[in-house]
Write a structure and sequence with these properties.
Elements: H1 9-16, H2 21-27, H3 32-38, H4 41-44, E1 46-48, H5 57-63, H6 66-69, E2 74-76, E3 99-101, H7 109-118, E4 124-130, E5 146-152, H8 155-165, E6 171-175, H9 179-186, E7 192-195, E8 198-199, E9 214-216, H10 217-225, E10 234-238, H11 245-256, E11 263-269, H12 278-284, E12 290-295, H13 302-311, E13 317-322, H14 329-337, E14 344-349, H15 360-368, E15 375-380, H16 385-401, E16 406-411, H17 416-421, H18 423-430, H19 434-441
Parallel strand pairs: 1-2, 2-3, 3-4, 4-5, 5-6, 9-10, 10-11, 11-12, 12-13, 13-14, 14-15, 15-16
Antiparallel strand pairs: 6-7, 7-8
Helix pairs in contact: 10-11, 11-12, 12-13, 13-14, 14-15, 15-16
Amino acid sequence: MPDLLGLSDEVLLHILSYLPSIDLIQCCQVCRSLAALARDKTLTRSLDFYLETRLTPSDLKTYVNRTVRDSIQKLNLSSLYWFPAQDLRFVSSCKQLTYLNIMDTKLKLQDIEKILQTLQYLDSIAFSLETSEVESFKKVYPQIKNLAIYFRGNRSTLERSLTKVFPGLEVFRFFTLALFYLAYSLTGRWRLTYSNGKRSPPEADEPESHQSFAFVEERCCKALNSRNKSRIYGIRMTEVEFKSKASMDEMLQSVGECTNLQILILRGLIIPRGVTFFDRLLKSCPKLTSLFISMDGRPQNSFSNLAAALKQSSIQRFALTARGWLENDRVLIDSLASCDSLRMCSLVELSQAFERKFDVQRIKKIVDNNPQLQFFFLGTKSVTNADAKQINRHMTEVRKKRPFFSGLVIQLKKSAAAILKDPDYAQQAGQIPDCCKHLLLEEFPPFLED
């Protein structure tokens, strides 16, 4: 086999052009000649480090030297929420930047203003913001044509204020903080797009099916059949009660025809006794990466079926709210602990208490056995405060080895907002990025109400 470094620079640059940005950084650690090529301006004009858990602040600092900073035109640092702000402030010295995404990072309003004041060619930017902070902008930035905001607060107030700060806006996109919209931000998708106050056409890679996904079960199949199913990217169903096996078969067939389905939210799910559902669902949706379930009643065999289905799936984001699943925790928790693709996991047990003792070690297995896990949440009334704090201390130790990881185990006796303000949980909750907090605060309020 010929020596790779014996190839001409032109050939090597062509090969390197197929690598993601994180792999270019890895190439810099091989040898000096490959490091020089990995920093070539043809490769560094556009860099994407979105939610890249393999990236460390020191590696990023070493790679982005003066030569690289002078060549970057497009830079995506979104969802590097564990990076200290000082390790991201180098962006203000990237003088050629025209596009920058710093959503869900620790950069504050003053950092954003410095970037806007310093980078004269910047016309597209995406960042996170509280609606109350909009009034704190000190200057006007007419050069910005394309703006995306990940925000908390009132949308109409946000739009009115931002048009004053950015009078040259041509396209304004925003993320709201409900879980379903969040699911798109986690995969780099825009949810709603506005141009001069109206919805603009979707981008080339944005599914046209982003217009609406909220269907009740009775209308679900009919609504889906009226759409181009190959373009449907996500579905939300509420009050999903299968009154017969035939209605379930119809739903599974209709959903299975959505060949690009990646996000599925099932709320108020009721499955008839003795019916296997989840294994058929996940087999019919091989591209599904996000599954969020809230179940009514106490289904007896559904959790074993769900556990078996998850074990064979490629689910990355999983949330379950139900009664009785923790009684079968050996099956479901073992399955989650062996799910290599898992990135985010939220588990809520609605039952009051159990006869046997809560198994702390099994919960730890989910965190320990999934090295790519970014977020873990468990809420149940059956865990004692002592056990919850023991698991939380363990997750703090895990975070020292995996800085991108955050997690929280709580005894469900308060509202979500009160839990996140509780001094006993303050340190642990403070490590949770906004995108994960809103998994708790926005999507699952009923069981957390006072």
